[in-house]
UniProtKB/TrEMBL annotation:
<dbReference type="InterPro" id="IPR001307">
    <property type="entry name" value="Thiosulphate_STrfase_CS"/>
</dbReference>
<dbReference type="InterPro" id="IPR036873">
    <property type="entry name" value="Rhodanese-like_dom_sf"/>
</dbReference>
<dbReference type="InterPro" id="IPR001763">
    <property type="entry name" value="Rhodanese-like_dom"/>
</dbReference>
<feature type="domain" description="Rhodanese">
    <location>
        <begin position="13"/>
        <end position="123"/>
    </location>
</feature>
<dbReference type="GO" id="GO:0004792">
    <property type="term" value="F:thiosulfate-cyanide sulfurtransferase activity"/>
</dbReference>
<keyword id="KW-0677">Repeat</keyword>
<protein>
    <submittedName>
        <fullName>Thiosulfate sulfurtransferase</fullName>
    </submittedName>
</protein>
<dbReference type="Pfam" id="PF00581">
    <property type="entry name" value="Rhodanese"/>
</dbReference>
<keyword id="KW-0808">Transferase</keyword>
<dbReference type="InterPro" id="IPR051126">
    <property type="entry name" value="Thiosulfate_sulfurtransferase"/>
</dbReference>
<feature type="domain" description="Rhodanese">
    <location>
        <begin position="153"/>
        <end position="257"/>
    </location>
</feature>
Length: 258
């Protein structure tokens, strides 16, 4: 499954992986980036006109990664400067277009965390020739409106809203529990909290590895981070509602306030 890689691990494996920076292009060029990193800004792989929900479309994805010198069998480490939430979206997108999840890694922390101990550069990275071939994933976590609607009455399923508490109060799916994705991040280190701390947050909410977990937010960005974290922790039954509240409200799905 998709995992979370430490800065120490990445530093030791920079020559063996493809590093993807999903910050804006001006940040990549002007502020600097990790050695050997390539720039694929978030806006370039996020589209409302894609083939599934907010995905960019397989042709767009293939062209983006080919131009970045990435092949379908490469190990990829992605990062941003927002605790990993945008980078996680990149990794989930790769997963949904058939990339082997064992070759997908989120940098623990982000660009700011990396700069505390390791060097950055403004030099352009060498980009090898590559043709990225999209494929169907061996197993997809995506679920649709009807599946989520049916899950509302399933006592073995936990519907998880990863937005903040104020958004949750304004309206959420019936029976959903609120887990702001930022609760899993340590503000000081900018990386994930310890396993013990994560378990202490997840278990009281009923979010445990033995249960079926269905994630949603507004546009499937924030759930990407939570999906990667739960995958990293070994959760095997995590589902991803790509349409999230954007689709749910458009189709008059039931909402509860308070």
């Amino acid at each position: 499954m998709v995992d979370v890689a430490s800065a120490d691990w990445l530093s030791a494996h920079l020559g063996d992986v493809r590093v993807v920076d999903v910050r804006d292009g001006w940040e990549f060029d002007g502020i600097g980036h990790l050695p050997n990193a390539v720039s694929i800004p978030f806006d370039e792989f996020r589209s409302a006109e894609g083939d599934v929900g907010m995905l960019p479309g397989s042709d767009v994805w293939s062209e983006l990664l080919s131009n970045a010198g990435i092949s379908a069998d490469d190990d990829i480490v992605a990062y941003d400067d927002m605790h990993g939430v945008f980078a996680a979206r990149f990794l989930v997108t790769a997963l949904l277009y058939g990339h082997d999840p064992t070759n997908l890694h989120l940098l623990d922390g982000d660009f700011s965390a990396w700069t505390r101990e390791y060097e950055t550069t403004t030099e352009a990275s060498d980009v090898p020739d590559a043709t990225y071939e999209v494929s169907d994933p061996s197993a997809s976590p995506l679920v649709d409106f009807e599946t989520v609607e049916a899950a509302l009455d399933d006592s073995e399923t936990v519907i998880v809203d990863t937005r903040d508490a104020a958004e949750f109060e304004e309206g959420h799916l019936p029976g959903a529990v609120n887990l702001d994705w930022r609760e899993l991040v340590d503000d000081e280190t900018r990386g994930l909290k310890s396993r013990d701390d994560l378990d202490a947050i997840l278990e009281p909410a009923g979010i445990t590895p033995d249960r079926r977990i269905v994630l949603y937010c507004n546009t499937a960005r924030r759930i990407s981070h939570t999906y990667v974290v739960l995958s990293h922790l070994g959760y095997e039954h995590v589902e991803f509602y790509e349409g999230s509240l954007t689709e749910w409200e458009a189709r008059d799905g039931a909402l509860v306030e308070g």
